[in-house]
Design brief:
The structure holds 2 protein chains of 2 kinds.
Chain A lengths: L4 E4 L3 H8 L4 E4 L5 H6 L7 E4 L8 E3 L5 E4 L4 H6 L1 H6 L1 H8 L4 H6 L2 H6 L50 H8 L2 E6 L2 E6 H4 L18 E7 L8 E6 L10 E10 L2 E10 L6 E2 L1 H7 L6 H11 L11 H19 L2
Parallel strand pairs in A: 1-3, 2-3
Antiparallel strand pairs in A: 4-5, 5-8, 6-7, 6-8, 9-10, 10-11, 11-12
Chain B lengths: L13 H5 L15 E7 L5 E7 L1 H4 L4 E6 L31 E2 L5 E7 L2 H8 L3 E6 L27 E3 L2 H7 L2 E9 L11 E7 L2 E6 L4 H12 L6 E4 L15 H13 L3 E4 L2 H7 L6 E9 L5 E12 L13 H4 L5 E9 L13 H19 L3 H7 L4 E2 L4 E3 L4 H12 L12 E2 L2 E13 L5 E8 L4 E4 L9 H13 L6 E4 L16 H26 L13 E4 L2 E4 L2 E7 H7 L4 E8 L16 H9 L3 H8 L5 E2 L1 E12 L6 E11 L6 H20 L30 E6 L23 H13 L10 H4 L1
Helix pairs in contact in B: 9-18, 12-13, 13-16, 17-18
Classes of the chains: A alpha+beta, B alpha+beta.
Bound molecules: flavin-adenine dinucleotide and iron/sulfur cluster.
The site of iron/sulfur cluster has 15 residues of chain A, from loops.
């Protein structure tokens, strides 16, 4: 670890101001940041602790949407009664992630910003474009069982590891950020970036910009929603594949649908194609399968992760069947 | 007086451990301690051309950098027996030359005032290499396979009886399949760590080791200092599973650096470093051929294993070691061969040989039972070996058939549909599987010292160690019974190389080896007390016969009249003694060639001398053992639920019935078997160390990438014991249990998955991608 200066910000403005300089980083729960610093993957000169900011509220909106403070702990969010009844897929996604101890520390903003779990990214002895731009990608021809099949480029095939973000992608969340120039909002779909030729650029935040809230707009049919995660062990493990699904079925016809996939994409992967295929179709297994095929139509598998294409489809179909079965 | 042996008493050191008061190797507070951080190679094969330490030297807090250019020269280690010191990589003493033979090999050690300073400086060491093409990828090198020498403890690597090939040709039913297992890592909770401190010519070392005596012997040879000047402590160890059985470079580098910089030095590996620089289980490919008659009797068994080792030592995973003995068959052929790869050297890992060997063999047995349309239990009973047909000797005791029956009862075997893929529970498929478990019962020479104090408490000293298995606890029970004292009055001290030599913690031998020595030492002390009483005309036992007297409740008294006797402390007090002590060595080994006699004049020779008049030692050593082989057996059962669409596997229940002789403590024994079962679940379902296919360095080197089972994976586990003492192994009748719990487990799960799905996965671990 490199030595750094620690600043304990008292309010948003101080945090933004302090983090405005280069090589400065926020720290919230620290569950990702500290590991990366210990491994010399992140080497900030200045660390701005934001835990004293007043961003801990979960506010229900009059129209049944919700605003979630960036410092709300993953555990608090997952057990929130409003979230559990209105957006069960979000609660389930959070509870499927990490372990209770980690969720007690992990914040909403930090979860959004967590970095990939590609093993080569974590090992400074290997080439990695995301860690060291231009050094190459050890995963493409290496051990890539856990890597992505959607949204990859010839520079990087790392997954975005978050479960929470898969649910937020499906729910069309809006991210509120505050910077030196004021407050702006970013639609969830625009927040994370595809690797393309610049895998080290992962999101749309500018230096010093602070995530203050996440808003989930009202989505009544998301009360029937589900997050399904397939993994190598029962807990404390990232997804091989996952699916966040909400369905509005009336008289056997799908009126509205939301679909996002995890474990397969270089960013949390909402599939508008799959949603389109569902809307207006009858709620049957063959419809689900067609949607799943479309969701994975652009998949580009590598040596060890070809199974993810089929597994992701099955995960999605199962999640859709489960939601259909919810009464 | 109630005997304490067998009782499920709590761990005597449990409170210390859960309150953090138990001191592990890395936790000793040593004045003026400096911190060493290793720099490991980032290439897989080649030479170190130069090491630039300038920048690192200038960093704050840095005391110095130890490299091959400035470090002390070491002497070659000789031995290969872990108990007397086995260096894991005999051709790669650390920092002795510029060769690099695997990724993650020691290149330098940075020593600084704090760990953080040392780590920071270590990142600034500039190493330039001359890279060579490494041998990477197990399967790519089968053409280079060669026949190795002997395996662990002199195990034969090639065995044969009858003509397996000829019998296979004429067998009515045959199976011939290939099974593969990956590299596994021990991932003991405590990483390898050493603190070394020199005091003139005397060296004190705190080490995370499974053998304080082995480390003492090894340090003395390699560093070239007398044994008496080498003191090793390992009071508490956070698991080893074999990774701390051989000695690794950290144990040498700490004293080397301490000498060089004239400061006590600590080296504690990071988890990532443990993966590359402190052992692993080798990768295997096993071909199993079985031939049987239509009556279900085996006529031919072939077990052919290829495994890999490094370029710096030869370790053979003797996967076929149990195969000639486990079932009855007139024709058997077992082979092992090795290839060399540029990887760190493999070493023993919980049941080395049997764990992966029973996976392959017991899945093959399941495949054969299926072909024969026989119930897997009945098939095994039909081929039960009543004796070791290879060695042509009887088993000291064996209740395997009872294990099968009790396991079947516990798991609900009657509910099993022999047709795979037929039983459903909602979305899920249900399956049952079983396998035989087996592990040899090892016993080796051990010594101990017993002291009875006038305040009424007793103490045992033994140079073995408790690696987390419960040795402190069961040995307290053994000693308490011999002294006739309650367990609270007995203090067992281990983990100190200046104590009488005890067994190394490996091969499941500590309980069986050290137990009888401790018992004999305590009985020896008691015999002295009794003799004093008999000679003391103030004692109620004056002039009585020793054989008529027994101990109990802190007293000695007549066997047939407990009222005639007195308190132990009264005997000592009246005779003006503050203590009575005795030492004993039980020179018994289940591997005949391993009984050892100490050199004349050594402290151990004195113990041998004293043991000649110790009745317990004499009776134990005279027990006729040469006509017997010593093995534990058991039956493993698993019930699994498989999601056929998603490939996810849920183990619903495990039943494990073990025949391990006397159960010394029901709680620690159950705990050891459960640990083995969970180890086996990891082996079957998720653990796998992955190497980069191009440069051959380890990719999965932390506990987020190398998966072991977590609580949420663990099902109901029913552990039962047969509980019949082994009449020949020792007066205690206990065989070791640290390793048998993993054997057969992976096969039982794999067989259950087959029964659930009809899918036979012959490549561990069985992950969802292999089932969809
Ligand atoms: C062993 C392990 C297993 C895990 N398993 C899972 C899993 O299965 N599923 C899953 O989804 N996650 C998993 N996680 C990841 C975990 O969810 C994240 O580490 C956590 O959410 C990060 O939150 P934090 O508050 O600790 O962030 P920190 O570590 O404090 O920060 C992470 C990043 O976010 C930035 N940041 C934090 N807050 C803000 C803000 N308000 N505005 C702008 N930037 C900010 C920091 O600068 C930093 O770059 C696992 C983590 C570990 C260690
Ligand atoms: S996939 Fe991305 S993160 Fe992984 S090694 Fe390649 S560039 Fe780095």
């Amino acid at each position: 670890m490199e030595p750094f200066k620690l600043i304990r910000a008292q309010d948003n403005l101080q945090a933004i101001h302090s983090a405005g300089i280069k090589q400065s980083k926020f720290i919230a729960g620290g569950t990702n940041m500290l590991d990366l610093m210990k491994l010399n993957i992140e080497t900030p000169r200045q660390v701005v602790d934001i835990n004293k900011l007043s961003l801990y509220k979960i506010e229900e909106m009059p129209d049944e949407g919700v605003r979630i403070g960036a410092l709300v702990k993953n555990s608090d969010l997952s057990y929130n009664p409003f979230i559990k009844t209105h957006f069960p897929m979000l609660s389930e996604a959070l509870l499927s992630g990490a372990s209770p101890q980690l969720r007690n520390m992990a914040s909403t903003g930090g979860n959004l910003m967590q970095r990939t779990r590609c093993p080569y990214f974590y090992n400074t002895d290997f080439a990695c474009n995301k860690r060291l731009p231009g050094s190459g990608c050890a995963a493409i021809n290496g051990y890539n069982r856990m890597n992505a099949v959607l949204g990859t480029s010839d520079q990087c095939i790392a997954t975005h590891p978050s479960d929470m973000c898969v649910a937020l992608a499906a729910l069309g969340a809006i991210i509120y950020v505050q910077g030196a120039k004021g407050i702006r909002t970013i639609p969830f779909a625009d927040f994370h970036l595809l690797p393309a030729q610049t895998p080290h650029l992962e999101h749309n935040l500018r230096q010093g910009e602070l995530i203050t809230h996440i808003e989930i707009p009202a989505l009544p049919f998301a009360a029937k929603s589900h997050y399904l995660k397939v993994r190598d062990r029962a807990s404390y493990e990232f997804a091989l594949t996952s699916a966040a699904v909400a369905l509005d079925v009336q008289n056997g016809i799908i009126r509205q649908a939301r679909i996002a996939l995890g474990g397969v994409g270089t960013k949390p992967w909402r599939s508008l194609d799959a949603e389109k295929a569902l809307i207006g179709a009858s709620a049957t297994e063959s419809t689900y399968k067609r949607a799943a095929d479309l969701a994975l139509a652009t998949a580009n598998p590598y040596k060890d992760n070809a199974f993810k294409v089929e597994l992701a489809k099955r995960t999605l179909v199962r999640a859709l069947k489960t939601v259909e079965g919810l009464s | 007086m109630n005997e304490s042996l067998g009782k499920p008493i709590d761990r005597v050191e449990g409170r210390l451990k859960v309150t953090g008061a138990a001191t592990y190797a890395a936790e000793y507070q040593i004045k003026n301690l400096a911190y060493g951080v290793p720099v490991l190679s980032t290439i897989t094969k080649g030479r170190v051309k130069s090491i630039d330490v300038q920048q690192a030297q200038k960093m704050p807090g840095v005391i110095g950098v130890m490299t091959s250019e400035n470090c002390m020269m070491l002497h070659s280690p000789a031995g290969s027996d872990p108990g007397s010191g086995k260096f894991a990589e005999k051709d790669l003493l650390p920092l002795q030359n510029d060769r690099v033979l695997y990724g993650g090999q020691y290149i330098a050690v940075v020593v600084a005032e704090t760990t953080e300073q040392a780590e920071r400086a270590a990142a600034l060491i500039g190493v330039t290499y001359e890279e060579q093409k490494p041998a990477v990828g197990f399967e790519n090198h089968f053409a280079t396979a060669y026949q190795p020498g002997s395996g662990l403890g002199g195990a034969k690597t090639q065995e044969k009886r009858g003509d397996a090939d000829a019998a296979m040709k004429t067998a009515a039913v045959t199976t011939d399949e290939t099974y593969t297992t990956p590299v596994y890592s021990h991932t003991a909770m405590e990483p390898h760590a050493t603190i070394a401190e020199w005091n003139g010519e005397k060296l004190t070392v705190y080490d995370a080791t499974q053998s304080v005596m082995g480390v003492q012997a090894l340090l003395s040879t390699i560093l070239g200092i007398p044994k008496e000047n080498t003191q090793v402590y390992a009071l508490y160890i956070g698991g080893g599973f074999g990774s701390k059985g051989f000695t690794w470079a950290n144990t040498l580098l700490a004293p080397m650096a301490a000498k060089q910089f004239n400061r006590p030095v600590k080296i504690e590996l990071k988890r990532q470093q443990v993966f590359s620089a402190a052992g692993r289980r080798t990768q295997t490919q096993q071909k199993i051929g079985l031939g049987a008659g239509t009556d279900g009797k085996l006529v031919s068994v072939k077990h052919d294993t290829i495994s890999e080792t490094s370029f710096v030592d030869e370790f053979v995973e003797t996967a076929g070691v149990a195969t000639p003995m486990i079932y009855s068959s007139p024709n058997v052929e077992v082979k092992h061969s090795l290839v060399r790869l540029n990887r760190g050297t493999p070493c023993p890992m919980r049941a080395p040989g049997e764990s992966v060997g029973t996976y392959a063999l017991e899945v093959a047995m399941d495949e054969m039972a299926r072909k024969l349309k026989m119930d897997p239990i009945q098939f095994r009973i039909a081929n039960h070996s009543d004796m070791d047909e290879q060695k042509k000797k009887q088993f000291s005791s064996k209740y395997l058939k009872e294990c099968y029956l009790r396991g079947a009862e516990s798991i609900g075997w009657n509910d099993r549909n022999p047709e795979p893929g037929q039983t459903k529970q909602g979305n899920l498929l249900v399956g049952y599987g079983m396998a035989t478990a087996t592990y040899p019962a090892n016993r080796s020479a051990s010594s101990a010292k017993a002291t009875l104090y006038v305040d009424g408490h007793a103490e045992i000293l033994c140079g073995t160690q408790d690696i987390g298995t419960g040795t402190y606890t069961v040995m307290t029970q053994v000693a308490a019974d011999a002294f006739g004292l309650p367990v609270e009055k007995v203090k067992v001290k281990l983990g100190n190389s200046s104590y009488p030599k005890g067994a190394q913690s490996g091969g499941s031998q500590v309980s069986a080896s050290v137990g009888p020595a401790i018992r004999a030492a305590a009985l020896g002390a008691m015999s002295k007390v009794i003799k004093i009483a008999i000679a003391d005309h103030k004692s109620p036992l004056y002039d009585k016969k020793e054989e008529d007297i027994m101990a109990g409740n802190g007293r000695i008294h007549l066997k047939d009249n407990a009222n005639v006797g007195e308190a132990l402390v009264d005997v000592l007090r009246r005779n003006g003694m503050d203590k009575v002590e005795a030492q004993a060595k039980t020179n018994v080994s289940t591997r005949a060639q391993q009984s050892t006699t100490a050199p004349d004049g050594s402290p151990e020779a004195k113990i041998e001398e004293e043991s000649k008049t110790n009745a317990a030692v004499q009776a134990d050593e005279k027990t006729e053992r040469k006509d017997y082989v010593f093995h534990s057996f058991g039956a493993q059962f698993a019930k699994v639920l498989v999601d056929p669409d998603l490939g996810t596997i849920r183990v619903e229940k495990i039943a494990s019935i073990m025949d391990i002789g006397t159960v010394m403590n029901l709680k620690t024994a159950t705990n050891q078997i459960m640990g083995g079962i969970i180890f086996g679940m990891g082996m079957a379902l998720m653990e796998e160390t992955k190497y980069d296919p191009i440069n051959g360095r380890i990719v999965t080197r932390d506990m987020a990438q190398y998966l072991v089972p977590v609580n949420a994976d663990i099902p109901e586990i029913d552990v039962q014991f047969i509980g019949k003492p082994d009449p020949y192994i020792s007066p205690i009748g206990a065989r070791g249990i640290g390793e048998i719990g993993i054997t057969g487990m992976a096969a039982a799960i794999a067989n259950a998955i087959y029964n659930a799905t009809g899918r036979r996965v012959r490549d561990l671990p069985i992950t969802p991608d292999k089932l969809i």
